[in-house]
Amino acid sequence: MFARSIAFRLKPNCLGAFTRTFEEKVLPILMQEVGFQEQITFPTSPTGTDVIAISLWDTRKQAEAYKTTEYAEALESLCRVLNSAPQVWVSDVIISRIHQVATVAA
To answer: Contact 22/41 with Cβ under 8 angstroms?
Structure first.
């Protein structure tokens, strides 16, 4: 399992708009992607201007491929609430309850 993490910096007072847009526009796109498993999104600052979005994927190739498929559309839907370009990275997942359940089921 692999995690595609994105660090967002939002404009002030835009956490609600970000959340709605992410749920209505971005999540449906992700759910159609091959290899997508789960999405976890949370603010990391008291003001709600810093947000981390972590999507979990079956393979590194699938996690990285999302950048070349629907990511641009998803990012465009969020552009009105972003204060700067997001930072993106892909990493191995070494511990996850989802990962353990998937391993046992296989």
So the answer is: yes
